[in-house]
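Hello forum,

I keep getting stuck at the same step: I have a sequence, I want structure tokens, and every attempt I make locally crashes halfway through. Rather than fight my setup again tonight, could one of you with a working pipeline run this one for me? It's a single chain of 199 residues.
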Amino acid sequence: MNAPRTSPQRRRDLVVAAACGAFVAAMVGAAYAAVPLYNWFCRTTGFAGTPQVAAAAPSQALDRRLKVRFDANVVGGLPWRFEPEQNSVEVRIGEVVTVHYRVINQSARETTGIASYNVSPPTAGPYFSKINCFCFAEQRLAAGETRDMTVVFFVDPALVKDAEQDSLDAITLSYTMYPVRQPEAPRVDRGSPRQGGRS
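Reply #2:
Ran it on my machine without issues. Output:
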């Protein structure tokens, strides 16, 4: 027969069990936080070609010009046609530009999508700033609905101070639409029909 555990042994076992539980909880929390933290990091630093978000335009536009190309993609499962109003524009660095994308729901039912974006080359991400954008906002379209969506952006004049960007002459802004699954409406139990009886 095993000897009963002493109180210090029991305490040590409880401490080890609590530490393991806290570690597992921290790992689960980190898994849930990883995506939003990564998105925040990319938007803050321009990492992986993520454009910046700006509240105001630069004070001046420079003479140097770049071509900005526009790209649109739709992930399978979303019955939309999604395209830029124009394939490219030539802009001055620091100039505020407004462009439009058009999306058409080609299905016979309401569907919802959400757009993510990036720019290439990735090193241009820290200098590509958007003032207004439809990205990361759910777009719910009725059957057959067409919607025009606006993007307002500029290329930060700080780009000319970066020697690595001296040969840069074109930037591509790319959007990808993903389907958003809507929660099913709860089924209402109306109960069985009342049988005849006194009123």
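Strands lie at 52-53, 65-74, 80-84, 88-92, 97-105, 111-120, 128-132, 139-141, 146-155, 170-179. If your local run keeps crashing, start a new thread with the error log.
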